[in-house]
Q: What sequence folds into this?
């Protein structure tokens, strides 16, 4: 399990069980692909969404909880996440993810398409096993749909230099925040908290998700490849204009125009020039401020949760998201 | 609706309702993609699986049936089918499907990956709407999984000249027969027939599926591009060795060896040469015999169904599958 959780021993134990459960689920006749999926599930992923799930569950009435069900639900969230990562890597043609080769680069896009599909199926299989008949079945399908519509929005806006902050938010709300929303909401629900806490959990998840994505987008402009464990400026060169760029461009659109007009033909040199313009026009600073706003919203809501160990851990974990390498 | 159904007016009407229902489901913020999906759902697809579904439902107790639910379930099967077609076309890099451009060739693989994923979600969304809590939820997930494992098997066996008929059957059982199995079984179940008829329906579907795939594979060796509405010998050049080739190769492995050894480097000329060898060594004739065996199994089981309009139509439709253009 990722060293990130050394300071969260209860969560670490549960995530370890999720990891073992996933290994058992990833059962494919083709043993190469099975091993690739198991490697992928264990290769440095933080299991951040399952962690939020368990922290919200911890707030609920322990005696009403079914530990096995909670493990399965947490795993289903990670399966959905893994499926979207594998398909994202096809689109990005990414050679690296979490510091190791992507399924796409190791086995080709053909295998990557079907293994991603297979994980979507396993996601539903686990859900059906644990909550068939529950209204949460529909909420899970809705989350998956929101996630994909967010990805399609992002795709649609590629190389669109007229993209607005609202466009960005709509896409991020789907592609990233939807899964944090689901993880927190399901944790609160299946942990037997209360309807009030469930509503709060959903809001907290959504705001954390937006902040999380914004920080991720900031890293693209401030990090180097060895720290990031994936190529830098990848989004920019692929026409995905994220919050640091959008905010910098709002300061001086004309400075960016000659570069963005080149669309897919931006050289590495030019991409670096755009990145330095983003910094020069306070894009990174403002994006940090943007992310901070959402983190503060989440923290304010976290403080409205019942006091205790879980709330303290939630607050700490959320603050840590603010202190990532940049 | 496809002219194929002009002689089946009751089925034609129901498939028309499925078509309208699908159009309403294909609701995407990006209107280009929405239109592409609607076009795809209406562009010459025969809705063969929904047709089998309705014919089996017709055998059941009409007064117990919920017409709206039946439309939704039939639509869910077509959604799953469409999703897999879109992802297949990414893998095959197919320019054409049903005589029109594929989503992949029209919008690129990026959009194709996510639109396929979106259809998988819509598949589950419709299922959850109509049968949340039913054990058929798990059977649907199982069918989708079987389908993908079949595709992965096929992928795994690409350019493998040691592939056996059993390997082929294992893959076809998943990638094609699983969906016919599901369509017939669900028709019988949600049409309120009996457990005996349900079991028979599943078997019939599976055998029809295998025969259907075998005929499809035969067409690849006997048809021309304008009849097929997609490139011919596509499977062969992509290393997918289907039943006509496998049976011909069993007659004289040495004749094929120099060609198959070239794997992905087979020229168009050489592919045509392989195709003529397949014909020369009775690969097509034997494959027809192979397909006929499965069709006869299905027909024998169909004759065990209660006599009546639906059974007659089922028999006729199944016989028609034998009379496709080759």
A:
């Amino acid at each position: 399990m990722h060293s990130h959780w050394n300071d969260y021993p209860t969560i670490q134990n549960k995530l370890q069980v999720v990891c073992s459960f996933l290994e058992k689920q990833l059962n494919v006749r083709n043993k190469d692909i099975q091993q690739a999926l198991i490697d992928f599930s264990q290769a440095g992923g933080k299991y951040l969404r399952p962690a939020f799930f368990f922290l919200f569950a911890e707030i609920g009435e322990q005696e009403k909880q079914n530990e096995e069900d909670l493990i399965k639900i947490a795993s289903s969230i990670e399966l959905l996440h893994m499926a979207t990562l594998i398909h994202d890597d096809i689109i990005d043609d990414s050679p690296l993810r979490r510091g190791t080769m992507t399924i796409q680069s190791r086995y080709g896009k053909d295998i990557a398409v079907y293994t991603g599909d297979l994980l979507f199926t396993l996601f539903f299989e686990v859900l059906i096993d644990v909550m068939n008949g529950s209204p949460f079945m529909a909420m899970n399908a809705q989350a998956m749909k929101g996630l994909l519509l967010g990805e399609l929005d992002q795709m649609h806006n590629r190389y669109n230099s007229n993209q607005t902050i609202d466009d960005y938010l709509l896409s991020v709300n789907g592609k990233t925040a939807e899964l944090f929303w689901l993880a927190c909401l399901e944790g609160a629900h299946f942990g037997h908290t209360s309807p009030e806490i469930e509503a709060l959990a959903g809001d907290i998840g959504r705001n954390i998700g937006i902040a999380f994505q914004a920080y991720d987008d900031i890293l693209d402009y401030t990090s180097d490849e060895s720290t990031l464990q994936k190529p830098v400026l990848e989004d920019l060169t692929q026409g995905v204009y994220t919050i640091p760029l959008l905010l910098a461009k709002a300061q001086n659109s004309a400075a960016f125009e000659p570069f963005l007009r080149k669309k897919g033909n931006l050289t590495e040199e030019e991409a670096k020039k755009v990145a330095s313009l983003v910094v020069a026009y306070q894009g990174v600073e403002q994006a940090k401020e943007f992310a901070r706003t959402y983190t503060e919203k989440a923290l304010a809501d976290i403080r409205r949760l019942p006091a205790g160990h879980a709330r303290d851990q939630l607050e700490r974990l959320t603050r840590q998201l603010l202190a990532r390498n940049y």
In short: The mean pLDDT of chain B is 92. Chain B has one domain: 3-322. Chain B touches chain A through 40 residues (CB under 8 Å).
